[in-house]
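Late entry, evening session. Most of the bench is empty. Finally got around to the prediction I had been postponing all week. Sequence below, unchanged from the version circulated by S.P.
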Amino acid sequence: MLNVAQRTWAPARSQWRMSMQRLLPVLTLLSALIAIIALGGLGLPVALGFAAKPLTTVLIIVYAWRRGTASASMRRLILAGLALSLAGDVFLLWPQQGFLPGLVSFLLAHLCYIAAFSLPLRFARRWLPFAVYAVLAGLVLGALWPGIPAALRPPVIVYVLCLAAMAAQAAAWWRSAPGHAQARWAALGGLLFLCSDSLLAIDKFAVPLPAASLWILATYWMAQSLIASSLAPAAAPR
């Protein structure tokens, strides 16, 4: 009887999982659009943005949750980084009071990502990506330096170095395995994360950007989705 029930329910369960896999990107995109419109003051209530912003990251965590079954350590580290990013998203809903806690949350998230990307390739094994990202980080810091309050300069320096190291390690992994799809997604995710945070810093410390929420959040969630995709997909059920 039990075996018959299992055979009966297995196709339905598999169909439900496939439907959820197709629906998840649509829900993530819809939630991201709501957050961008609401937080950008483009017509939707700000309270809706307060709900949609963390929800979008939660949906990316759900996407990552079913991936990475071939590497349990990398899966745990990427999921930890996404969870810390979720905490940072919540803190940054209050840009003034939550800036420093948000910065620390994302700093810890990048450390998780660095540890994850150092599993397939030893950290800083290839020097060229680190040299390139060091130059980029220096240019960003140099341009923003006059506008950064003195009390925030030390944590901002540490954060920028950590972010650049994360992006460089992801790029190094890709350079060591150019045909590896997951390495490519990690490298692109690291680059977009740097772009997103640079836009955020320019908007906060230099000059207000037009449609800032669009560019900052769009590149941010693209980065997180690509980093989640650095986990190999789960094997298809038989």
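Two things to note before I forget:
The two ends are 21 Å apart (CA to CA).
Residues 2-39 form the longest helix (38 residues).
Will write this up properly tomorrow.
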